[in-house]
Amino acid sequence: LLVASLVAAYRIRLYAVRDYGRVIHEFDPWFNFRATQYLVDNGREKFFKWFDHSVWYPLGRPVGTTIYPGMQFTAAGIYNALNAIPDVTVSLNDVCVFMPAAFSVLASLFTGGIAWEAASEGNKASSAVVAIAVMAIQPGHLMRSVAGAFDNESVAVTAITGTFYWWVRSLRTQKSWQFAFIAAASYFYMVAAWGGYTFVVNMIGVHAGVSMLAGRFSFKLWRSYSIFYALGTAAATRVPVVGMMPFQSMEQMGPLFVFFMCQLYAVSESRRKTLSDREYETFRKRLTSVGVGVAAVIIGALIQSGKIGPLSARVRGLFVPHTRTGNPLVDSVAEHQATQGDVYVKYFHFNVLTAPCGAFACLLFRRTDARVFVASYFLVSWYFSSKMVRLVLLLAPAVAVSTGIALGAVIEWVAAEAATFAEIRLDPDAVRANAAAAAKTPPGGTPGGRAARRAMDKRGRKSSSNGGAFRITELPSVAKRKFRESPAFRKALAGVVVALFALTSRAFSKTCDRMALQMSEPSIMVRGHYPNGDVVMLDDFRESYWWLRDNTPEDARVMSWWDYGYQINGVANRTTLADGNTWNHEHIALLGKCLTSPEEEGYQIVRHLADYVLVWTTRFAGMHGDDLAKAPHMARIAGSVYPDVRQEGFYVDERGNPSDTMRESLLYRLHSYGRDTEIEPLEHYEEVYQSKHSMVRIWKVLDVDVESKGAGAHRACDGGGWYCPGGYPDALRETLASKRDFQQI
């Protein structure tokens, strides 16, 4: 089952390759692929000094210092290693396509390792294998790891599970704290791979803090956490995009506080032997009070001084009971929305029932450091996943581990019953002995008096125990008598459990397979349906980007909504105005102002920034919404910076009729000209391309301001000569003067 699960983990993620070929998916993966290509071509030093002027025109972006580079370095390392083998030639595209599927195998193994550490004695192997089998194919993990989804999360899940495994491994015995060094190294890779590293350090901090508050402090915990936090944080600061953020961001103050408290507990514990119990309690309370007070004063002073920043909009949205974070840019992203209840059934199937059982079993029975960690991880990740659908990904390993612990115990019990049944069937003497004992059973009693009763109790506990999570002695008295006095009942119950397990496993496997097919649809290529039901492969997006690449000047600037920036830049190799990095709210607001303003007003900005405008123009059956569906978000983002932009009233009703505000906008005219007969010909734009299935339209901007385009080449460089941000043309000075810097609501 272990081998089959690992093979399935890889194969179930290859449907996209089978159906679409070796294609990079979605939007962000195209940037990641382009960055990896730059790293391979130019090396590490130039990579970290890479200022890309072909993005975020006219400002540019210092990619080397604003990227989490772990995945790029991993892919480049694999690519170089494979091509160093004689007679082996592998393309970088193939490495990037298959890497998510390969890393899912490692993530499954680490998940099984966590289950092994947390399971009770006697259940470890079965719990680990079940956890691996669930993690290998569950949609909660599939959602970011299919082949072609070359995104940070595809390797980050492996880093998360690896860090958590080495953390709980370091707490197994008093002498296993050395594994904290490996946990720190794994955490460093996590930091380099994904911005979600803050969850990892906070989760381990929560576990250490809960352990101390619950009276489970030990010197192995002190050693492990001190090593992990000190070395892991020191290494994290070496990642350029992170820098000193562990000491400057509010969301990372918790682990620092726990580290400080851990030292106080260690000092307090070291005095235990030299003081009486009363003196020790007094000393500990005083030391803790003083320590907490000093830490609170220091952190409060740093916050007041501005050296510690506030919680980010995304993190704040995890704690406030609102549907909006106050940042319209964050709210415009679908994966930042709250999670609906049916999502859990969709992504975890039967695990929504078994995982809570395993988590609470860890919390209630035979608590160890590893079991407390699993319970804490499950509860924390469940809460956060309910606030943001994207964070369901963080819950996936916790669900797999908890299910592994629950089902592992059940499997061991069933195996014990099966072994007892086989023993009786193979031993006729045992059958005769049982019959004789039954004949001597007094009314309402147990066979054979006290000695037989003790033997039956011992056999019942042995055959029905699953290592501590559940025992016969913990059942109500009626159920205990039923189990002890009726082996047939136990065998029948075991048979029912096996049948349920087989049926549920089959249904789970089919669900995962169906979800894998759905998740393997790359947004850059999709399957659509004609009105008659026929399936058609839609490659309009790539064909549009190829047209830009082959039919426009190399210095052409393409305006589109920020979603498509990565693909335009990666496939068409043309300059874009914004992309999924979304680092500059005000710049995206300017883009939104261009598209939601009336044609003439928008044109007075567009002609200074772009040569072409690309819009998504249709809602093909089974497709995502086009740009008209995003217009309300564009207006809200623009209005948060430019007061003259009307934020409401951008909609198209159920009959396809636009509101007056929508009809007047540049976006609607670019989108619907030729379809809406009431739209007059555009004065400042010429349509130069429409894709085969009318999903993309490209317009050429007429009378582009040449002087403004030339001004984009003038950049102010720093002393090192590589950091050279651009600036807006002077012609936009009046427009920019009307903006207000975005303030978080």
TrEMBL record:
Gene3D superfamilies xref list: 3.40.50.12610
Taxonomy of the source species: Eukaryota, Viridiplantae, Chlorophyta, Mamiellophyceae, Mamiellales
Domain Oligosaccharyl transferase STT3 N-terminal: 8-402
Reactions performed catalytically: a di-trans,poly-cis-dolichyl diphosphooligosaccharide + L-asparaginyl-[protein] = N(4)-(oligosaccharide-(1->4)-N-acetyl-beta-D-glucosaminyl-(1->4)-N-acetyl-beta-D-glucosaminyl)-L-asparaginyl-[protein] + a di-trans,poly-cis-dolichyl diphosphate + H(+)
Keywords of this entry: Glycosyltransferase, Magnesium, Manganese, Membrane, Metal-binding, Transferase, Transmembrane, Transmembrane helix
Transmembrane segments: 177-194, 226-246, 287-306, 347-365, 391-415
EC nos: 2.4.99.18
Cofactor(s) named in the record: Mg(2+); Mn(2+)
Pathway participation: Protein modification; protein glycosylation
GO MF term set: dolichyl-diphosphooligosaccharide-protein glycotransferase activity; metal ion binding
Coiled coil feature spans: none
Name of the molecule in the record: dolichyl-diphosphooligosaccharide--protein glycotransferase
